[in-house]
Design brief:
By secondary structure, the protein is mainly alpha-helical. The chain has 13 helices and no strands. The protein has 2 domains: about 5-70; about 75-315, Orthogonal Bundle (MetI-like fold). α2 (about 20-70) packs across α13 (about 275-315) and α4 crosses α10.
């Protein structure tokens, strides 16, 4: 094919279009109708899919609410589990609630700093490092690893050497889940900060570390907090890692060196047990767990809103 063939075809097409304007004017309304119909069909499909997802969400939430609210009472928050057959059985979930707060606190103490430091390295210091690509790949893989695999890993790394199930192992397993989520979120959010912020800070004589701490991180603080809260909400509902590490306990304890209670494990134990009273308490525990996750997400939204509003006022 000759080099000028394509240009000749386009030139002849333009000549035919300009020579017969009635044909062009006749095709434009038809084309617009087709495009409008296609856009309307896509919009209807999106609306239908959204309504289906919302209907499923409302159905599941309303079912859990109606089941759990019937068995939710003050004893659930103030009493520890009581074995079947004893007076006051089945008791409540006070030990599990306290244990969940302790486990999330320990896991956040480990996972959030490590994840943020890894994200800062990947965003700010990995330009000439060969280590960045493997770290990103491993973080992406760990984000999708099933939680039961993390539980088995925690069992081998913490439970076996210590010789018993313990809360530290459970917190370590939860932190292992949090680290890649926080790391990748921190990296992506720091990359969204304009380079002009960094250049201006360095031009004023600030070091790279001071620029990161006082300029880059505050600029991305709202988005980073979003990732942190999502990671906390993720581990708050995990059960499998704690079955292999913390195991669970019916006692009210704050000593992580012993088998440690948690809300998810307690609900799992009650829900799969043969006693109807314990199954009823499990429904109340599910409602509390959903309320906890909802509260964390609501806190996340409010925190981000306040930070954005404060930044807008300062700007």
């Amino acid at each position: 094919m000759k080099r000028g063939t394509g240009r000749e075809i386009r030139r002849k097409y333009m000549q035919s279009s300009t020579s017969s304007p009635e044909v062009t004017l006749g095709l434009r309304p038809l084309y617009r109708r087709i495009v409008t119909l296609h856009s309307a069909c896509m919009k209807v499909m999106c609306v239908v899919c959204t309504l289906i997802i919302l209907a499923l969400l409302v159905n599941v939430t309303s079912y859990l609410f109606t089941k759990g609210i019937r068995f939710l009472n003050w004893d659930v928050f103030t009493k520890v589990p009581i074995p079947p057959g004893m007076e006051g059985a089945p008791g409540g979930l006070k030990n599990a609630l306290v244990g969940t707060v302790v486990l999330i606190t320990l896991a956040s103490t480990i996972g959030i700093p490590l994840g943020m430091l890894a994200g800062v390295y990947l965003s700010e210091y990995s330009a000439r490092s060969w280590l960045a690509t493997p770290v990103r790949f491993i973080a992406d893989v760990l984000t999708g690893v099933p939680s039961i695999v993390v539980g088995i890993l925690g069992y081998e790394l913490f439970v076996v050497p210590m010789g018993r199930f313990n809360g530290f192992a459970g917190a370590g397993a939860l932190a292992f889940i949090m680290i890649p989520i926080v790391a990748r979120t921190t990296e992506e959010m720091l990359r969204l900060v304009p380079n002009s912020y960094r250049d201006a800070s360095i031009a004023l004589g600030a070091t790279k570390a001071r620029t990161i701490v006082q300029v880059v991180l505050p600029a991305a603080s709202g988005s980073i907090i979003t990732g942190v809260m999502l990671a906390i909400a993720r581990v708050a509902g995990e059960t499998a890692p704690l079955l292999f590490t913390a195991l669970g306990s019916r006692l009210l304890t704050v000593d992580p060196s012993q088998p440690f209670p948690s809300l998810t494990v307690q609900v799992f134990t009650y829900a799969t047990g043969p006693y109807r009273d314990e199954q009823n308490v499990a429904w109340a525990g599910l409602l509390i767990l959903i309320a906890l996750i909802f509260g964390l997400n609501l806190m996340l939204r409010l925190t981000v809103y306040r930070l954005q509003r404060k930044r807008g006022m300062n700007g």
